[in-house]
Amino acid sequence: MQAAGTDTRIVQRIYLSWRTGAGATRRLVGLFWRVNDRVDFKYILDHHDIFDAVAEGFIGYPDMPPSVHTYKDVLPVIARRLVDPDRSDRVKYLEQWNATDVDIDDFDRIALTQAWLTNDRFEFLGEFEPKDGLNFVTDLAGQSHYNVPIGRANCNDPLTYDLERIEGYEEPAVNVYTMQGEPLGRVKQVHNRLFSHPDISNYTVELCLKDSEQNGVLKKLFVEVRLSAK
């Protein structure tokens, strides 16, 4: 849902993430940002992630080959990833990501849904900042390593979290647990920045399990994050 306030836009920036496949390390390779009424894009060439990605086979985003160039007015290109308005399950899909608000623009809807496609390895990770009423869904990282058993957490269960400083990472990891202290995974890159934002102490942060995919173990956990001003 959209955050309250004069500026109803939810995010100003979205990071482009790429990885070789499920369970592999995510590489932040590019950045989309708002410029007045348009969206621009550039590759993050001053960070090791893009060099690691290239070594792993990354060749760039379609129609935007790696370059020092800033690509301008790219929202029409990336908006193609949004779910087709004529799809019969569109409403259900958007409800899963808390992205049904008709006032949400395409850039915010990309951030909320991460614009997943089944035929590529990209994710669009919105940089959320604290706002009263902020409400989004994130899938936890590390599921291939945690092997969370079915029954450890159920839909609508409240969850808790803590921050962990890890050498070599700029932002602390956000570890997510059941209320009994059983580990479930970590908040993925970029989304984790919200939890260590300088203003986050002014807000109450609530987490609950929104949904899950199962295959003997909990294969994918979707966590709803809600903020309210104190």
Write the layout of secondary structure elements.
Layout: E1 11-18, E2 27-35, E3 38-43, H1 48-55, H2 75-78, H3 90-96, H4 106-113, E4 122-128, E5 135-139, H5 143-146, E6 158-164, E7 173-178, E8 183-186, E9 203-214, E10 218-229
Antiparallel strand pairs: 1-2, 1-4, 2-3, 5-10, 6-7, 6-9, 7-8, 9-10
How would you characterize this protein structure?
With 230 residues, the chain is an alpha+beta fold. It has 2 domains: 1-128, no CATH class; 132-230, 2-Layer Sandwich (Alpha-Beta Plaits), CATH 3.30.70. It is built from 5 helices and 10 strands, in the order βββααααββαβββββ. The protein has helices at 48-55, 75-78, 90-96, 106-113, 143-146; strands at residues 11-18, 27-35, 38-43, 122-128, 135-139, 158-164, 173-178, 183-186, 203-214, 218-229. Strands 5-10-9-6-7-8 form a 6-stranded antiparallel β-sheet. It has a 4-stranded antiparallel β-sheet with strand order 3-2-1-4. It is globular, with a radius of gyration of 17 Å. The model is unreliable at 1-5 (pLDDT under 50).
Quick one: overall form? globular
| Helix-strand sequence | EEEHHHHEEHEEEEE
- Secondary structure class reads alpha+beta
Helical coverage, percent range: 10-25%
Distance between the termini: 19 Å
Q: Please indicate the percent range of residues in DSSP E strands (runs of 2 or more).
A: 25-35%
**Number of separate structural domains:** 2
Number of helices: 5
Question: What's the multimeric state?
Answer: single chain
Strand elements, count: 10
C-alpha Rg, in Å? 17 Å
Give the uncertain stretches in residue-range form: 1-5
Mean pLDDT: 92
Largest sheet: 6 strands, antiparallel
